[in-house]
Amino acid sequence: MLQTSPHQNPAAPGGAPEIVRNPGTALRPNLFEDIRINASASERRAASLPARRSVKKAYQAAWLVKAITVIDLTTLAGDDTAGRVHRLCEKAKRPVRDDLVEALGLADAPPKVGAVCVYPTMVAAAVKALRGSAIPVASVATGFPAGLTPLPLRLEEIRYAVGEGADEIDIVITREHVLTQNWQALYDEVAAMREACGAAHLKAILATGDLKTLGNVYKASMVAMQAGADFIKTSTGKEDVNATLPVSLTMVRALRDFGDATGFQIGFKPAGGLRTAKDAMNWLILMKEELGRRWLEPDLFRIGASSMLGDIERQLEHYVTGRYSAALRHPLA
């Protein structure tokens, strides 16, 4: 039987996991302005991570089940419909076929994903489909993916999504503030978004592929956390370059430094370009090596993905049967 860990925190009255909020701090440029990132060293460290752990057979299957529990199962397509969202939510509740769950010895505690992520207009459909499941609904907002609509409209979009029932809001920052080093403007923007979220948790998308340097990624991460972000997230999935291990390493080092300075635990979410079970393993290893076991739980780690789930289920079927099945046997919806 596989040994996996449940969510660390109890369910809140609304069904979503209870997560301790980041109250934020005053803007403290002294924590990041003089930072210098050695890009070559970051790339070497990132490249070494997959080789540091050789996870095979039952252990690999257990890690992949763990990966399922931190996936933000996502649909952000222009042709999304309530029906598509409903089908995706059914997959979120039962991400692995019943016969595989039984064979893995998980029938008493079957896995489910960390959250379902949709556009604001699809939140109500997701909330309805997930009622009673304890799976949170996340919504992108603030003019996703570019984030270049006027700030009052971005804040109103947050309030709309929260009003529809979203438990988490994935906001996008104004990249210009980072590129021009206008940290006060970035801090004020994220702080206003944090306030607009109310009780919903804020995940700040940095769109790292647009930020040009690892130094900018580190600084933007620190400002977003100081402004009250509960999670920092790599990408919208729409940039030319999305989540990479060197960028993710830089961000988790920033949240570790922030935690050392303030005592607050901040979550991390890579997104964009993560499609395979191998990708899931690489990012789980990154979190375990850099931050420890606590950051393998869904209140502190998420993976933004959709097609990844199908590949994980395929790998689990291989573990159970010894054979690889066609991808069509593992549909998302």
Can you give a write-up of this model?
This protein is an alpha/beta fold. It has one domain (56-320): TIM Barrel. The chain has 12 helices and 8 strands. It has helices at residues 39-52, 57-69, 82-93, 98-103, 123-130, 151-164, 175-179, 183-197, 214-226, 245-262, 277-290, 307-321; strands at 71-74, 115-118, 137-140, 168-172, 201-205, 231-233, 267-269, 303-305. Helix 10 links the parallel strand 6 (231-233) and strand 7 (267-269). Residues 1-17 have low confidence and may be disordered.
CATH C-level category: Alpha Beta
CATH superfamily: Aldolase class I
Identify the strand order in the major beta sheet. Answer: 7-6-5-4-3-2-1-8
Low-confidence stretches: 1-17
**CATH topology (fold) name:** TIM Barrel
Number of domains: 1
H and E string: HHEHHEHEHEHHEHEHEHEH
Q: Helical element count?
A: 12
Total beta-strand segments: 8
Mean pLDDT equals 92
User: How many strands, what sense, and barrel or not for the largest sheet?
Assistant: 8 strands, parallel
The radius of gyration over CA amounts to: 19 Å
CA(first)-CA(last) distance: 28 Å
